Amino acid sequence: MDDCIFCRIVEGKLPASVVCRDDLCMAFMDIHPVNAGHVLIIPTDHVAFLADLEEDTGAHLFRLAQRIAAVLPKCVSQCEGINMFLADGEAAGQEVFHLHLHVFPRYRGDQFGFLWSSSISHIPERNELDNVAGTIRRAMDL
Ligand code: 5GP
Ligand code: ZN
Hints:
Blueprint: H1 5-10, E1 18-21, E2 25-29, E3 39-43, H2 55-75, E4 81-85, E5 101-106, H3 126-139
Antiparallel strand pairs: 1-2, 2-3, 3-5, 4-5
This protein binds guanosine-5'-monophosphate and zinc ion.
Zinc ion (ZN) binds next to helix 1.
């Protein structure tokens, strides 16, 4: 994908501060970090969305994310917690259309936060939750 910045990073045509890479995934520093230590983990083959990602590659990618998260508190001065975040689709906030998992340190009082507006305060009835759970379960052929 010539017009994909992350593919260009994988190919070495754009600079990146690489943590590690293997035959399936690559981890490098985000150029606009939420906090110091913000890592992006991507499949090395171009995949735009979760629906296109092989399950095995997804498992591999998450394993790498867990390993990075495990060492982050030792690697940066302010790391009291970790967020992992994946934006799948424009409506979910995806800006680079090569799938990536954000892993970044959090500390009390940092300036990052998800905005939960008051209109999201609805607490559904149990049967409503059960219905959606059943719909998802059936869609998964379980
Ligand atoms: P998204 O909003 O798609 O989940 O996140 C895209 C992320 O990619 C952003 O956090 C942004 O800072 C990062 N990013 C955009 N362009 C580049 C780049 O050229 N190099 C690196 N290392 N990160 C980038
Ligand atoms: Zn790409």
